[in-house]
Design a protein that fits this description.
With 44 residues, the protein is an all-alpha fold. It contains 2 helices and no strands.
């Protein structure tokens, strides 16, 4: 799967605290390797 980011996303991502950026990168890496991983399931 190919993923792209918009300029707005990159701008907003850069404004996040470093700890949150790290969590987001970790979650995205996990998503790339296993999109069905239980920790990525959206809760209602």
């Amino acid at each position: 799967m190919t993923s792209r980011t918009s300029p707005e996303f990159r701008r907003d991502f850069a404004l996040l605290p470093p700890a949150i950026q790290k969590q987001a990168r970790s979650a995205f890496r996990l998503f790339n390797t296993d999109p069905q991983h239980p920790s990525l399931v959206r809760r209602r």
